[in-house]
Amino acid sequence: MKLNPANTAIIRRLLVGRNNRPLRSILSKIEAADLASLVSLLNKRELQLFVEALLSIEKAAQTLIEVPEPQLIEALRRLTTDQILRTVADVGADDAAHFIGLLNPGEQTEIFARMPEEQAAKIRQYLSYPEDSAGRMMQAKVFYLSIDLTAKEALEILRKKAQTESIYYIYCVNERHQLAGIISLRQLAQPPNKNH
Predict the structure, then answer these.
(1) 194 in a domain, yes or no?
(2) Least confident of 76-80, 94-98, 102-106, 126-130
(3) Residue 133 and residue 148 share a domain
(4) Which has fewest Cβ within 10 Å: 26, 72, 112, 189?
């Protein structure tokens, strides 16, 4: 479903209504990038209800990531601490660092104090890198497989993971999680070379 003036008006009416089921139904059918364009149109109360509805359908983080930074800063100021915590719980440390980095130091301190220490440490690590540096953009986790897996087991895991993340290289590790080898998906998919 595409966002248009008619369904934008319906969404705003439903935001202040008591029945959230129709609202959640409409929001679940609209792409996150389109939903992001609504953020600048909503007042503080509407935005809080909008994010609450998005959180209930697990679409808040992916929608807010699409909001341009100046609007995102304003939107984050209007959200409750609980809403911000629930939003950053649904994203990786890099995106969580992006959201939290836009808050003022007092708000950051409050957010960090209320989240699990391990999660806070990962986000602080991202925030310790200068903005727009490679450190801020890098992925902290890589996809790896144990060298003890059979080909069938490895392919099953690979198929499941490929549905939720982009995988270009497979890192193979031993029982001590030490790197044993690397293979690209391209190499894996190529037919065997008969000359070897």
Answers:
(1) no
(2) 126-130
(3) no
(4) 189
Q: Tens digits of per-residue pLDDT, 152-183?
A: 888 888 888 777 677 778 888 888 778 888 88
Q: 196 lies in a domain?
A: no
C-alpha 86: how far from chain center: 12
- Both 124 and 149 in one domain: the answer is no
Instruction: Indicate whether 94 and 179 sit together in one domain.
Output: no
If asked whether residues 88 and 155 sit together in one domain, one would say no
State how far the alpha carbon of 24 is from the alpha carbons of 1, 39, 40, 57, in Å. Answer: 13, 16, 19, 7
Q: Where in the sequence is the domain holding 81, given as residue range(s)?
A: 5-137
pLDDT digits (tens, 9 = 90+) for 94-120: 889 989 999 999 999 999 999 999 999
